[in-house]
Amino acid sequence: MTAPLHEARPAAPGRALPDTQQGMRRRNLARVMHTVSAEGPLSRAAVASRIGLTRAAVSTLVDELIRSGLLEELGPERPGRVGRPGSALAVSGRGPAGIGAEIGVDHLAVCAVDLRGQVRARAVRQADNRDRSPEDVTADVTDLVRQVVAEIEGEGLWPAGLAVAVPGLVARDGRTVVHAPNLGWHDTDLGTLLPAHLPLTVDNEANFGGLAELWLGEAAPHDFLHVSAEIGIGAAVVVDGRLLRGTRGFAGELGHVPVRPDGPPCACGGQGCLEQYAGEEAVLRAAGLASAGNRVEVLADRAAEGEETVRRALHDAGVALGIALTGAVNLLDPEMVVLGGALAGLAPWLLPSLRAELARRTAGPACPVSVSRLGSEGPLLGAAHSVVRGVLDDPAAVPAPV
Amino acid sequence: MTAPLHEARPAAPGRALPDTQQGMRRRNLARVMHTVSAEGPLSRAAVASRIGLTRAAVSTLVDELIRSGLLEELGPERPGRVGRPGSALAVSGRGPAGIGAEIGVDHLAVCAVDLRGQVRARAVRQADNRDRSPEDVTADVTDLVRQVVAEIEGEGLWPAGLAVAVPGLVARDGRTVVHAPNLGWHDTDLGTLLPAHLPLTVDNEANFGGLAELWLGEAAPHDFLHVSAEIGIGAAVVVDGRLLRGTRGFAGELGHVPVRPDGPPCACGGQGCLEQYAGEEAVLRAAGLASAGNRVEVLADRAAEGEETVRRALHDAGVALGIALTGAVNLLDPEMVVLGGALAGLAPWLLPSLRAELARRTAGPACPVSVSRLGSEGPLLGAAHSVVRGVLDDPAAVPAPV
């Protein structure tokens, strides 16, 4: 299968395509893909009426998208309608797929998601990645990517790109891990370490978690603050359906918002940061569980069993989260705060004090706080879906299968 | 003079125009205006090469813009060049003008800015607007607008719209003042109170101050946090050259970020908010000047004279600003923090402790803090320029002169 649409480097997500006839064609291809993806199966006529182009123009676009394997025809629509039956179009389940990878502190995971949003393959390896070299870790990731790609190729799919979630700050080049404290990585260019034939995007796990919520969350608003935790506490700020990245790519460092300015010193250089009260280590210490194994699960289990010290520690973490979120809500006026990542699993014990703190610091109705259903799956799914979204946003830039 | 381009309601600033041939023409008109505005005077050929359209296409667009009074020809370029001399184009100094108004607690101001960015008329009235009815205050504003419009009409300009800066929260409809505590206004629809023949936009003074910094500040970055104060403390969050408004339009409430969570209660419902440490009343109280007249000037004068209590009060306010800004910088990762509004006049005494606090709470290089040259002129200029930007962004939507 060839990809005749292949024309140029993919446009960055959300970046405007050039305002020329050619750019207009590329945008219209994207419109067709998004329409069929959101509302399909649809006939050509239905697509034309949805996007306000003529049926003839849509047919040309659709034919191109079928040739490149992005759309497929399901056969004639069911009879009983007036007029000649049209053939229903659907997003292809055998076209390009997005490969997502997650480099966690305790595990590696890779998955493939097709254009319909279905997870088609998955591989996981438990590993203590603290202080392993980037070369060793990325060699393992490359292995897992190969497994997953081999699996989907057997089903007629091909990889359109690789997106990697990391627990650290990533530069705006989308390749360089500037600082991942729990991995011990500094200024690590993953572009030289991962398979060169796949277009690569590296991003912070909290960002991919927030994007997953935007794309996959139930009734996700377009303006929200997604708070997540692994070892540290991160946030993704989504504004008008777009991720706010910051000048250096470091936005969303909620964990380093001062909660009590005279509190304990923090590794970031600050004092009394949120992480000193609601970060994993701080909560484990307060719960008297300093050296627990699978730490978040242990906290959840002990809290569920009613252990008072653990519940008290989580209550206090909720208060600290409430104070930091009051500031964030006043600055950003989001429609909602979503607790994701490991925090989702602890929500029953964090939420009451968190919500009470937000409410008592707000004159009007407090910003609603909800819990992500994606939980710790968010970053991996967000990574894979970011590749899929890239295909929908600019179908003409999809790389041909290798 | 007629305005043959008049076609539709103005597009909201930054909102994409429809992706049709007609939309493309409107975007190209905007491109011509922005290019001549930023780099003019320019020949048609120079405009064509800058925006990547043919000379013929640009000539058609330019002719339309000249007919509607938005561009003018300055006559033949200076001789000595090869080929037929082109006529240099400039943005008109006799076309539409933006009318800006500021409703302050102690004063009202109105000004007119032409498409070249020059202030062409200005009217100010000192008045204590605390607890005056919206009807009385807007009647005064309407008077001042009439004066200013009469003045510019004498010079061949006409008003393209009115933008009003208010010290309070404004709904996203751009008309309704939801709450202006120091005016005593609640849910006040200014759309019914101000001249109906002018397109109206109402916004928070901190937002217009931030936009003025974006458009007029020297070397203004595209990602910054603009902090300003009148009676309260507000901020404008500018991301990728766009103002972040928030779901309800309430973003930027830096004054209600908790600085010391157990501190004094605040009218917002919170406790230990920044305003309790760095708001005008708090600083005056700490400086022992509770009932001073023109308060910010008094603070600046006393600090300049070396009065120790006043300097100490401003030092402490700088510390509180530094704590709140540490949180904001960690969340937003701006390129710069800009002190504007009344804070600009107090900067010499606020900045040392503010910068020290930011630096000591940051591991790497701290976010730079600069001082706006626009100072308390920012909101008024930002309002007038917002109308001018609206004209440049969608010249086809400019209303005809009444």
From TrEMBL, chains A, B:
InterPro entries: ATPase_NBD, HTH_MarR-typ, ROK, WH-like_DNA-bd_sf, WH_DNA-bd_sf. Pfam families: MarR_2, ROK. Coiled coil: none annotated. It comes from the Bacteria. Residues 30-81 form the HTH marR-type domain. Residues 1-23 are annotated as: Disordered. PANTHER family: BIFUNCTIONAL UDP-N-ACETYLGLUCOSAMINE 2-EPIMERASE_N-ACETYLMANNOSAMINE KINASE, ROK (REPRESSOR, ORF, KINASE) FAMILY. Belongs to the ROK (NagC/XylR) family. This is ROK family transcriptional regulator. It comes from Streptomyces actuosus.
